[in-house]
Amino acid sequence: MSRTGTAEDKAGSGEPRRHRIGIAKIVVLSLGAGLAAAVLLPFIPWPTVDANFATAMVLLGFAIGWALLAALSVRLTDQPQRWAYAPALFMGVGAVLLLFLPDAVLGALDWVWPPALLVLVVWVFRRAKRDLRSRTRTWLLNPVLAVLVLFALGGAYEAIGRATEPSVAMRGELVDVGAYRLHLECTGTGAPTVILEPGGGASAATLGRIAPEVARHTTVCVYDRAGKGWSDAAQTPPDGAQTATDLHTLLERADVSGPYVLAGHSFGGLYVMRYAAQYPDEVAGMVLIDSTAANTNPVPPTDGSDSLLKHVSALMSATARLGLGRLLGGATAKEMASFIDEYAVAGRSASEAGELKSLDGKPLFVLTAEQGNSEGWMPHQDAMATLSTNSLHEVVPGATHQSLVDNPTHAAAVSQAIVDVVEAIRTGAPLATR
Fold first, then answer.
1. What is the mean pLDDT of residues 332-356?
2. 397 preceded by cis ω (within 30°)?
3. Which of 53, 124, 164, 201 qualifies as a cystine partner to 339, CB 3.0-4.6 A?
4. What is the pTM of this model?
5. How much is the mean pLDDT over the chain?
6. DSSP character at residue 97
7. DSSP, residue by residue, 350-388
């Protein structure tokens, strides 16, 4: 006999016999609608688009699905699933809290929601086993509950991992650059001042082997771009031009005098090239550390795509609450969003860097990793060395793209190249003769 929740299933229950819809259709329709809402709601306009907003909208979408299951099953079937109001309420309240509570309070709740969700899943499983007399519970509802268990375990993993991390005090200062604050730390004395630009998705901490060595010879400053390290997040993905503007404002408001020696690793090379194109009088020399190559394509026009990208990055960064960022190297939701934002506008940043046509005779040192290069990488490195008539291009033996900043020997070669550029500026001697 079929057990799909027809009127015959309720014979003798005291309810009037009338045509009803099968419970399987209601479950599929309701949970499908909830999934669709969870995908679409994170893209609605909102003043602050971040991981909290994205998570709240996903929860609200699923809450709608559970509420539909409860309401439609009561109204249209002979198998009312009133228990579904419980997960709807749980997720709906969670969405409201994420939208309106401060981060400090939400941090405390990170210890509460994983066990609460596990308890809810167990309760839902038992109630559905009693009330949902359909194979739908086996092939649709149980997998959904299994996913919720994984979410709860991931949330617990993230909370425990964050609590057991060693505490690191911020050094330097946070400087207001208008829409947000950027972290800046300067050490050493003397001129010209060296500005270190980290690679794509990286914070100032990744240059910890280079800055102290350079500080023995001159002033050196490291900073975190928007959304990285100690810096605040930006509301729209900052491309190369915005990054250069941010750095200019940061140095001006922090009273860091120029002109500067700019040293950029990987994607950071794009940003220092853009800075030199945008503020040529503020650049005394440059070091490109296995830099990403600029291109001469025109800058794509800006339209509503930046807003879409921000919603996408917020949605993806929300997975940090489930421990995914920790599994990928300890990234927070803010850092994951910043990483996605940066690479989403990479083409535009490369085009903007390509607007630097020449450094004239300013000292330029190009360092390239010997190992792990893709086809065409070395010719691009050679081409970047032609930006100045006073340049050197050195391939660092045994170095890889990453080891140039985290291997002591290879990082020492980078530090020495920066010091060489500083000395060339001080003495006026051609870099090529050093």
1. 83
2. no
3. 201
4. 0.76
5. 88
6. H
7. HHHHTT----BTS-EEEEEESSSPPTTHHHHHHHHHTTB
